[in-house]
Amino acid sequence: MSGINDFIDNEVKNNDVVLFMKGTPQFPQCGFSGQVVQILDYLGVPYKGVNVLADDALRNGIKEYSNWPTIPQLYVKGEFIGGCDIVREMFQSSELQQHMTDAGVPVKAA
To answer: What does the radius of gyration of the chain's CA atoms come to, in whole angstroms?
Structure first.
């Protein structure tokens, strides 16, 4: 399990924005992952998508890593932001855009 944990830790720490999701940004394989991809794409935020469907150990490992039971999971500058509902609520209140800006992640002007 430590190999998966190291992989996750590396992705989280070496990418400003990383989304652990079902499918890929080009082809999300669940509605919740798709919604977060749409939000990130709308904001023009550069991010890395990690497909948890590619590996069962990864799918279970990310849940343990974050202590969060669902996927997708969004990380910004090493910080766990949340899943689809939290990301959507933060986006609708402009809190997500502000958080990205505060973290030094470029966001496209609305």
So the answer is: 13
Question: CA nearest 105: which of 34, 33, 46, 42?
Answer: 46
Percent of the chain clearing pLDDT 90 (strictly above): 96
**Annotated binding residue at 84?**
no
Cα gap 37→35, rounded to integer Å = 5
Assigned CATH for 3-100: 3.40.30.10
Cβ atoms within 10 Å, residue 78: 13
Straight-line distance from the first to the last Cα atom of the chain, in angstroms, rounded to the nearest whole number: 42
pLDDT in tens, 31-66: 999 999 999 999 999 999 999 999 999 999 999 999
- pLDDT value at residue 80: 98
Instruction: Residue 59: count other Cβ atoms within 10 Å of its Cβ.
Output: 16
Name the β-bridge partners of 79: 76
